[in-house]
Structures are given as C-alpha cells and as structure tokens.
Specification:
This protein has a single domain, classed as Up-down Bundle (Hypothetical Protein Ta1238, Chain: A), CATH 1.20.1200. Helix content is 58%, strand content 5%. Strand 3 and strand 4 form a beta hairpin. It is mainly α.
C-alpha cells in the first residue's frame, strides 16, 4: 500500500479535526517550518558525536512532533491534551541549556558556524527553528490564536540548539571562530 493519499493533489492540506486550507496558508507554513526544523535536527543528531547531544536532540524532535500536531488542529476544534505544549516543556529546555552552558560556556560574541560537522548541522537546525518561530509569530499576527507556549518553546529551542552546537565543538576540542566587526574572523 503506498504511503501517499493523493488528498493534497489539489494544493490543499487537511487539518487535524477536519477542514482544508491551501498548502501556502500560514497554518501549514508554520507546522511545515517546524517539520523542517525536526528534519534538520535529525541530520544534526546523525552527525553528533556526544551521547548527550543525541539524547537532547531526540527529546526535542519528539516534542516538536507534538508541536506540529498542535499547530495542525483545525480552528474551533479541541486540541488533544497530549499535543499541548506546556510551560514545563519550556522549562525543560531551560534546564538543558543550563546543563550545556555549565559544561561549555557560550562565547560572548557571534561565531562563524561550521567548526565541526555536528556543530554546523546544529547551527543550520537553529536557523530553521528561528524561521519556524517567525512563521508562528506571523500565524498569530494573522489572527490565528494558538497556545502561547508554542512560541516560547520555539524561541527556547533555538537557544538550546546554539548551546548544543557549542557543546559539540567543545566535546571535539574545537571552538567556533569568533566573528568580528571588521569582517575578519578570529580563531
């Protein structure tokens, strides 16, 4: 049995709980950006060398799957409780960030990504996560009301990804070069 359904062949997507919207509608644009972030995290996880990175990234991927589900619920439909992003989910990310920063303090200035394969992949995932956050903000601005913990989670997740990239580099005995104001890079 094929994995495709042909239901989206007309350019629409089905929402959880019923109803269709165009695939370019802000709602699927938002959960699609979260999906991209989750996939970018999969690449970062595959490239990671530290078991802690693998564990934390997989945990984030599992939560992001539920964030996508929560964002995909049709307007006016009840959101299943297991989908709901909570303040505790955001606090968990803050705990992870504190743990990572204790082991590999973040540099005080901007860095040039790519010092290690895993660090570079985590920085790509961070930028995709930031785009997902912007899409969620745009969705809210368009009048689509949703759980505010989602925006907090996406914001915190991108910060954790920055920390994870620096942690991976630290674990490899490397440090990302610092970006300077003059456009040169300092090692």
């Amino acid at each position: 049995m094929p994995h495709y359904t042909r239901q989206g062949d007309d350019g629409s997507t089905t929402l959880f709980g019923g109803g269709h919207v165009p695939k370019h509608h802000p709602q699927p644009e938002t959960f699609g950006a979260v999906d991209e972030a989750t996939s970018a995290l999969g690449l970062a996880r595959a490239l990671s060398t530290a078991p802690k990175t693998n564990e934390f990234v997989k945990e984030m991927q599992q939560r992001l799957y539920l964030v996508m589900a929560e964002l995909a619920v049709a307007v006016g439909k009840d959101i299943p409780t297991e989908f709901v992003t909570t303040a505790a989910d955001v606090e968990r990310l803050e705990t992870i960030a504190a743990e990572l920063e204790a082991e590999a303090p973040p540099p005080p200035e901007f860095v040039i990504p790519g010092e290690t394969p895993a660090g570079g992949a985590l920085d790509v995932a961070r930028t995709v996560m930031r785009r997902a956050e912007r899409e969620a903000s745009r969705l809210r601005e368009s009048g689509h009301d949703f759980n505010p913990e989602i925006l907090r989670y996406l914001n915190r997740a991108s910060s954790v990804l920055y920390d994870l990239a620096r942690y991976e580099e630290h674990n490899a005995g490397r440090a990302a070069p610092r970006a300077t104001r003059q456009g040169t890079v300092e090692a």
